Automatic annotation (TrEMBL):
Entry-linked InterPro entries: Kinase-like_dom_sf, PRK1-6/SRF4-like, Prot_kinase_dom
MF-aspect GO terms: ATP binding; protein kinase activity
Domain Protein kinase: 1-214
Gene3D superfamilies to which the protein is assigned, alphabetical: Transferase(Phosphotransferase) domain 1
Alphabetized SUPFAM superfamilies for the sequence: Protein kinase-like (PK-like)
A UniProt-annotated Pfam family: Pkinase
Annotated protein name in UniProt: Protein kinase domain-containing protein
Length: 216
């Protein structure tokens, strides 16, 4: 919930409407009280502008600052975290700038990883330049859905097939009936975040508020 609040703050509490751009586990840190903190906001881009030639040995990711800094196409090292990127981020050879809605998608993948205890690493291949036109046609929704990590498709199919929660969720979350209800609610929040269509995803503020209600 702390990570959701942090991203909501970046998105909502600035006239620039900041974008993180690299929401993934290594950029979510815990303080001494185990509160989640969002890290690496814009650090890589600042190091690049400052002339550091080995930015990844210092920063380790590609977070950016919304409209404050120019967008740089992800490098091969950054592509290791592509499983957390929104489907539309793979279009046009990966040169599409991240958006607030792509941050929401990345957070949704992160939340699914937490709920299931499974990694999203086995993601679908990136969209090639030759397939970009199909993204813009009547089959665009299906094309975008096919770019989702296997974890996203597996969980969504599991809910469509009404599979037992015990087959989807990490056993540590299923300690009692109340916890089961909270886990199901959290799954629905996560699945809303990973909608293929960016316009159907909620804002991070709404995501944060929903998770706060679940944990209340």
């Amino acid at each position: 919930m702390g990570a959701a609040r942090g991203l909501a703050h970046l998105h909502e509490c600035s006239p620039r409407r900041f974008v993180h751009g690299e929401v993934k586990p290594s950029n979510i840190l815990l303080d001494v009280d185990y509160n989640a903190l969002v890290a690496d906001f814009g650090l890589t881009r600042l190091l690049t502008i400052a002339g550091c030639t080995d930015v990844y040995s210092v920063a380790g990711s590609g977070g950016i600052m919304g409209g404050a800094l120019p967008y740089a196409r992800p490098t091969a090292l950054m592509d290791k975290s592509s499983a957390y990127r929104a489907p539309e981020a793979h279009a046009l050879g990966g040169s599409q700038p991240p958006s607030q809605k792509s941050d929401v998608y990345s957070f949704g993948v992160l939340l699914l990883e937490l709920l299931t205890g499974k990694s999203p690493e086995h993601a679908s291949p990136s969209v090639s330049s030759s397939s970009v036109p199909s993204l813009l046609g009547h089959n665009g929704q299906r094309e975008l859905e096919q770019q989702a990590p296997e974890l996203v498709r597996w969980v969504r199919q599991g809910f469509e097939d009404v599979r037992p929660l015990s087959e989807l969720a990490d056993a540590t979350f299923l300690r009692d009936a109340t916890a089961r209800k909270e886990v199901v609610a959290a799954f629905h929040v996560a699945l809303g975040c990973v909608e293929a269509d960016p316009e159907r995803r909620p804002r991070m503020k709404a995501v944060s508020e929903s998770l706060d209600k679940i944990g209340a």
